[in-house]
């Protein structure tokens, strides 16, 4: 059963808007910029509740034998049983777990690393959850939540990252995020558009990106280029892509608290390694400006959601000059049908991007994008066409870059 069928049983379920930003598209020289705005999702300010609700429902339905995968059936099955949900969070996931616990009649304990704002903590306790402050980073909070859950027979650990031996719930969380992709497909189709050319997604542990990559790589969506964006203070995915294996990085302070994760989810890693076109990092300064830019365009986004904004993205995309072939804002977004390339200065600086970027491989973003663009001009032919056209001509200048260090 697709997760969206379960989500439809939740009070207040409605697709979030897909915002069309024509002025931004014109400014960037692309055909269309669309933003999936997740500022209000089932009454919470993030997409995270899609994953938490679906995973909790699956786990509790299995444990207590719910008659169906609906909120009412899960709540009925839980009634009379002691259940405590455990989760570590940098904000949104913990609030989502706390919210879902209240919906299904369970208790919740949420572990917080330092850096989580007082507002985020209060929002979690307002849902009725206990909070535990952990002396350590996000990874330490995850370890503590897992350890405490292991000692509690009523526990269900609802973590949005995975590791060896803990994969079932995180996969359900990723499956829950698929609702966001499915809604977007419907909304893009309703606009009369084909599949997007580029999808940009923010990465913390990479579960959202895993859902997006699985969606676009798992069906005939025309194979859009997929680009991940991380905070430059927590660039675990970029480091892993460089190393060719999953590695952890120390995490610095960042306003992108939801992206402040030092280790990519074990389940996400192979999907991202094989499915992404590339990964880039953005700085707090870039993201702060992007939040303001998006607000001016009427898009309500926090720093995590603004991370893949075209302001930073246009800079990495145009290193070396030339036309932006791809770019777009977030929570995650797509640009459709890049228009003919034309030299465009960076909208922010009016010039070349600032600090030097090191060209970084994901799996040859440039090659993938070249293949993608040459394979889908206005009407896609049965066979791949040779690289041609103005957008493809801009490709040699396209870089997948990450700030060094
Ligand atoms: C608003 C927002 N965007 C993106 C992310 C990143 O998601 P993931 O950790 O699955 O990569 C988070 C994580 O907390 C978030 O809160």
Characterise this structure.
This protein is an alpha/beta fold. The protein has 16 helices and twelve strands. The chain has two domains: 3-44 and 177-403, 3-Layer(aba) Sandwich (Rossmann fold), CATH 3.40.50; 48-162, Rossmann fold (3-Layer(aba) Sandwich). The protein has helices at residues 3-7, 22-28, 48-64, 71-78, 92-104, 118-126, 138-150, 168-190, 207-218, 236-243, 268-275, 284-296, 303-306, 310-317, 365-375, 389-393, and strands at 18-20, 32-36, 84-88, 107-112, 130-133, 155-157, 198-202, 225-231, 278-282, 332-336, 357-359, 401-403. Strands 1-2-10-7-8-9 form a six-stranded mixed beta sheet, sandwiched between helices. A four-stranded parallel beta sheet has the order 5-4-3-6, with helices on both faces. A two-stranded antiparallel sheet has the order 11-12. The longest helix is centred in the middle third of the chain and has 23 residues, at 168-190. The protein is globular. The relative contact order is 0.13. Pyridoxal-5'-phosphate is lined by residues 46, 48, 90, 92-93, 160, 202-209, 258-259, 261, 304-305.
- CATH names the topology of the largest domain as Rossmann fold
Q: Into which percentage range does the β-strand content fall?
A: 5-15%
Number of domains: 2
Q: Please trace the helix and strand order, writing H or E for each element.
A: HEHEHHEHEHEHEHEHEHHEHHHEEHHE
User: In which range does the helix fraction lie?
Assistant: 40-55%
Summarize the biggest pleated sheet: 6 strands, mixed
Rg on CA atoms, Å = 21 Å
Structural class: alpha/beta
Q: What ranges have pLDDT less than 50 throughout 5 or more consecutive residues?
A: 314-405
Shape: globular
Distance separating the two termini: 43 Å
Count of extended strands: 12
**What are the bound molecules?**
pyridoxal-5'-phosphate
**CATH class membership of the largest domain:** Alpha Beta
How many H/I helices? 16
Widest beta sheet: strand line-up: 1-2-10-7-8-9
Question: What number is the mean pLDDT?
Answer: 79
CATH architecture of the largest domain: 3-Layer(aba) Sandwich
């Amino acid at each position: 059963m697709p997760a969206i069928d379960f989500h439809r049983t939740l009070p207040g379920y409605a697709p979030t808007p897909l915002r069309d930003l024509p002025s931004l598209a014109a400014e960037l020289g692309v055909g269309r910029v669309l933003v999936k705005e997740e500022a209000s999702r089932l009454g919470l300010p993030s997409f995270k509740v899609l994953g938490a609700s679906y995973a909790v429902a699956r786990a509790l339905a299995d444990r207590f034998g719910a008659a169906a995968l609906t909120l009412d059936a899960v709540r009925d099955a839980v009634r009379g049983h002691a259940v405590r949900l455990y989760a570590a969070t940098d904000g949104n996931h913990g609030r989502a777990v706390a919210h879902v616990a209240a919906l299904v009649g369970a208790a919740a304990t949420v572990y917080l690393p330092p850096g989580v704002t007082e507002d985020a903590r209060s929002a979690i306790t307002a849902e009725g959850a206990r909070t535990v402050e952990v002396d350590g980073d996000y990874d330490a909070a995850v370890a503590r939540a897992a350890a405490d859950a292991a000692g509690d027979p009523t526990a269900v650990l609802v973590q949005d990252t995975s590791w060896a031996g803990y994969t079932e719930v995180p996969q359900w969380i990723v499956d829950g995020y698929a609702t966001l992709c499915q809604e977007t497909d419907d909304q893009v189709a309703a606009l009369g558009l084909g599949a997007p050319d580029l999808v940009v997604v923010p990465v913390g542990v990479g579960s959202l990106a895993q859902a997006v990559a699985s969606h676009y790589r798992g069906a005939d969506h025309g194979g859009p280029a997929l680009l991940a964006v991380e905070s430059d203070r927590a660039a675990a995915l970029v480091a892993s892509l460089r190393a060719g294996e999953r590695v952890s990085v120390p995490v610095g302070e960042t306003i992108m608290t939801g992206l402040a994760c030092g280790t990519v989810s074990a389940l996400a890693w192979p999907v991202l390694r094989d499915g992404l076109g590339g990964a880039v990092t953005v700085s707090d300064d870039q993201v702060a400006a992007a939040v303001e830019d998006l607000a001016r365009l009427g898009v309500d986004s926090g720093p995590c959601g603004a991370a893949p904004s075209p302001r930073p993205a246009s800079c990495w995309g145009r290193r070396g000059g030339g036309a932006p072939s791809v770019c777009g804002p977030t929570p995650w977004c797509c640009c459709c049908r890049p228009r003919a390339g034309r030299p465009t200065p960076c909208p922010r600086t009016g010039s070349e991007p600032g600090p030097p970027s090191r060209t970084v491989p994901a799996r040859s973003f440039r090659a993938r994008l070249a293949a993608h663009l040459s394979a889908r001009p206005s009407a896609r032919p049965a066979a791949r066409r040779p690289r041609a056209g103005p957008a493809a001509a801009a490709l040699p200048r396209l870089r997948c870059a990450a700030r060094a260090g």
